[in-house]
Specification:
It holds the Pfam family WW. The protein contains one helix and seven strands. The strands form three sheets. Strands 2-3-4 form a three-stranded antiparallel β-sheet, with no helix packed on it. The model has no long low-confidence stretch (mean pLDDT about 80).
Amino acid sequence: MAADLQPEWISCLPSSWSYGVTRDGRVFFINEEAKSTTWLHPVSGEAVITGHRKTPDLPTGWEEGFTFEGARCFIK
């Protein structure tokens, strides 16, 4: 199960790692040394959930979300 974004997620990143946030709110991790990225936290191995996103192009009552594997889904 993925974990919620907490300050300790940021503070416990290894020294060669940083993080970014996509336009749709997903957190990803950057390994500066290896020049690679991943959706999984380098220490816990879990994805970080930042919540669902409501957008004006979705019908009323619907939200956009993502599975643990990174696939987009819609939730009513």
